[in-house]
Amino acid sequence: MQDRLLPPAPASLLQGLEGLAAALEVVQPLRARHRAQLPGEVARLSEWLTTARDELPRDYLSRPALLSAYLYYFLPWNLFRQGRLLAGLDLQLAAGARIVDVGAGPFTFALALWLTRPDLRSVPLNYLALDRAAAALGAGRRLWEQVAAGSVWKVDGSAQPAGARALPPADLLVLANVLNEVHKPGGGDREVDTDAAARLLERWGQSLAPGGRVLVIEPGTRPASRQLVMLRGRALELGWRVAAPCPHAERCPQSGIGRQPWCHFAFETARVPGWLEDLSRRADLAKERASLSFLLLEPGSPGAAPESGTSAGAGDDMPVRVVSGTFALPAGERGRYGCSARGLVLLVDRNDGTTAGPQSGDLVRVSWPADPPRDAKSGAAILRSGRLSSGTVRRARRTTRP
Ligand SMILES: C[S@@+](CC[C@H](N)C(=O)[O-])C[C@H]1O[C@@H](n2cnc3c(N)ncnc32)[C@H](O)[C@@H]1O
Question: Could you give the 3-state DSSP secondary structure of residue 182?
Fold first, then answer.
C-alpha cells in the first residue's frame, strides 16, 4: 500500500504535459482565427461545466470549437489532477487487466495513467473508452497514437450513451468528471437520491470481475464532493468497501452539507508547463491550486454484512487522513485538518522551520486522548504532535482501511 495519496507530480507526467502541446497540434490543428478564439471558447466551456451546467449543450464535445477548448485546456488540467492521484493510488492492475472508462472523453484516464506510471507501460492492459461523443473518442485515439505509439496496451473506444446497455466486464471501472453528466445520483443542489445511487452501484457491481474496483473522480468542489459523500454512504450501507481515501467506514465528517467542510484534496500547480499557464491566463482561469475529490470502491462479497467502522478507542493507534494543506497557527505552531473515525481532527505541531510534517493525502496514526480539546472554529478534536505516533507524525504504511 502507498504511504501517500498525492505524491509530487512525477517527472514523466510533467514531461508528458510539456510535450502535449506538440501532440495536440497534430491531432487538432488550429487555424489562426480558431487559435485566437481559443481562450474565449475555454472560458465559455468552463462556465458551462461549472456554474451553468444546465446550459451545457448535450453534444458539446461533438462541436469542433468546444472540442478544441476541451483538448487544449480541460484535458491537460485533468491529466495533471488525475496524474497526481494515479501516482500514488494502488490500483492493482496486473497483466490483462480490463479498464473501462465511462464518459472517457479524449481517453483522459488512459493518457494520465500512461504519463504517470512508466512502470505500467510494459504491462499489457486493456483500456476501453465509452462516450457518447464519437468526436472526443476519435481525438483520444489520435492523441494516444501520438503519445504512446507502439504501446503494448490494447486501447479502444466505443461511441455509446451511458446506460444504453450493460457495462462490459471490468477489473477497474473509471468515471472521471462525468457523474454529473452521465448519472445523477443526487447531491449537489439537488435532493439526495439514494435510490439512484443504489441502482448505479448495482450496475457497476454487475460489470466488475472478482476483486474489481470502481474509481470515481470529480472536481474538488462542494457540490461534487457532496455527491461522492452520498454515494459513499449508500455504498457502505450496501456492503461495499471504501479502499480510498477514507481511513474509516463511519459517517463522513466532511459532508459539505450546511457549514461542514467538503472532502477534497488540493495541490499546487507551480510545475505545469508554460503553454498551459499561458492559455489559462488568457482565458482568465489562471490557478495556483488544483483540486479533486475521489472514491475508490470495492463491492462487498454477496451476503456480507455492511462494513462497520473502526473500533479504535482512547489510546488506540487511530488512522487519520490529512485532508488540508498546512496553515500557520499562533505561537509558532502550525496545523492541518485530518479525517478520522471520530470525526474531524486538527493536527498541530510546532513549526521548527526544518520539517514539513504531514501533507494533504498522507495517512498518520495518532494516539487518541480521553477528552481532547476542541477547535472553536471547526469543532475538530485538537491533537498535538506529542499525540502523534512515534513522537512525531509518521506516515502509515497503509492508505486503505486499517
Ligand atoms: C467533462 S467530460 C470528462 C471526460 C474525461 N473523463 C475527463 O476526465 O477528461 C464528460 C464526458 O462525458 C461524456 N458524457 C456525458 N454524458 C454522457 C452519456 N450520457 N453517455 C456517455 N457519455 C456521456 C461527454 O461526452 C464527455 O466526454
Answer: helix
- Residue 290 predicted with pLDDT over 60: yes
Q: Residue range 60-68: average pLDDT?
A: 95
Question: Is the pLDDT score of 389 beyond 60?
Answer: no
**Spatial CA neighbour of 221 closest among 256, 271, 260:** 256
Q: Quick one: which of 160, 238, 172, 244 has its CA closest to 207?
A: 172
Q: How many CA atoms lie within 13 A of 374 on its CB side?
A: 9
| Closest alpha carbon to 116 in 90, 87, 92 | 87
Give residue ranges with CB within 6 A of ligand 1.
61, 75, 78, 103-105, 108, 131-133, 136, 161-162, 176-178, 181-182
3-state secondary structure of 25: helix
| Å from CA of 181 to ligand 1 middle | 7
Amino acid (one-letter) located at 204? W
45 found inside a domain: yes
Q: What is the position in ligand 1's atom list of the atom closest to the CA of 164?
A: 20
CA of 8 to the centre of ligand 1 (A): 27
CB 295 within 8 A of CB 265: no
- 138 and 212 together in one domain: yes
Beta-carbon count within 10 A of 244 CB:
25
| Ligand 1 pocket mutation pick from 20, 181, 203 by most atoms within 8 angstroms of CB | 181
> Taking a C-beta distance cutoff of 8 angstroms, is the pair 102, 182 a contact?
yes
pTM to 2 decimal places = 0.92
Give the residue with greater pLDDT, 180 vs 305: 180
Residue having the nearest C-alpha atom to atom 13 of ligand 1 = 103
For residues 175 and 259, what is the distance between their CA atoms, to the nearest angstrom? Answer: 28
Q: Check residue 390 and give its pLDDT.
A: 34
pLDDT more than 70, % of the chain: 89
pLDDT of residue 186: 41
Q: Tell whether omega for the bond before 245 is within 30 degrees of 0, i.e. cis.
A: yes
Mean pLDDT of the chain: 88
**Would residue 59 count as lying in a domain?**
yes
Q: Encode pLDDT of 92-133 as tens digits.
A: 999 999 999 999 999 999 999 999 999 999 999 999 999 999
Distance 60 CA to ligand 1 centre (A): 10
CB neighbour list of residue 195: distance below 8 Å, 6 or more residues apart: none
- The count of structural domains within the chain is 2
Domain limits for position 380: 317-387
Same domain, 292 and 147: yes
Q: What is the pLDDT of residue 1?
A: 35
